[in-house]
Request: fold
Amino acid sequence: MSACLPIILGVFTLIYTIQQNQIAKDNRLQDERQANEIRQQNIYDKYLEDITKYKSDGNINLEIIRLKTLNAFSQLDIQRKRSIILFLYDIGFIHRNTTEKERLRLDGADLTGVKFIRSSTFHCQLDNIYLSGILASNIIFSHCRMWYANFDQALLINAQFINCSMSYSSFVSADISQAKFIGEANNAERIDFSNSKLIEMYMSLPMRNANLTNTDTFNSQIIFSYNASRVNYFLNTRLPNGTFSIIGTSQLIQDGSAETEYQKYWLQRSGYNAVEQSNESEQIPDAIDGKSYFKLFFNSRAFQDINVRHCSLFIDSDNAWFNLSAYLACPFSQHRKDITNIYLRFYDENLIGIKTEILESNYNQTSFKYQYLTERILPHTRQISVFIGTIMNNSTLFTNINNNSNYTKPYCLIDDMKFNIFKNIL
Ligand SMILES: [Ca+2]
Reply:
């Protein structure tokens, strides 16, 4: 017994020391937590105080407010971030139905994991909330009313919208992959999902009247309503099984037939001569389509840019081809090698040229001839510039000028130009 006592005392001392160390450690952590809490509360209070003062003074510089807000978000916890969003909403800074000048943009604001959950004290009425460009993976909205909400360009991976009423909301160019739309009626009416990613998204009710232009729904669990009054709009859409919906094949060149005032859509290239439009009184030959056509002289050049972002998904799938067609002629030239051409330049997202294609008239083409060109569109193409012009033998021009004849300047003709994108089924 007497031999045991020191051992017991020793064990006791050891346990006591471990306990004391743990208590000291707990206290230290508690102190750190408190300090952090106080620091966050100070940042939060100062932020609210500043913005309220700007607002009451009428001294609203949205760029400064934006920087202050992003700075606050980078330091605060999710509860305080949520409070700031509700504060900004309440004072009208993040409403979709204001003008762009009056609206605070929160692009890049980190709202990851923030929760907006309706409760007895919080009604979550967020109609028209404007949260374009936020970074908000795992964000949760539960039992909220958010008609006309705007989440354009936002990153919302694995977001949850539980029993939310959100008709007419907008997710243009947003990433809502793996998100969940769970719950009751009105959950998903007339939402604009164009250009957005809905990969592996889940929606418990059928999707209705949504805009799915260029939307990626690959591997999603979405049921599309085929009720006649509730059909969704599919164009260049990647469907859940990986296939594509109808691909837009409509004419992408604006006024390719010289029928409107052509300067409306065509720009003159600097350093080149103008392209002209024929008028009926002087017109020989007749136009192929409508009443007039383009007249292109020596060194004439005009262009227009076609934006193909609305079918970027399809283009990047590497199945996209284009067809360019037009009627071309050079009846009023004096050199058999004078030609007219349509020159296509393909650009990527950064406007770096990645491909060039040319459709040309033949030599000695004195009357209109239908010509076309069909080629693959390279993935990553985002813009296509269409140039119309001529390659004329210089001597033709000089000959005419020197002869001082009554022969008007030689020119070539283009009419009924069409550019379509289509799916190559081979
Ligand atoms: Ca025409």
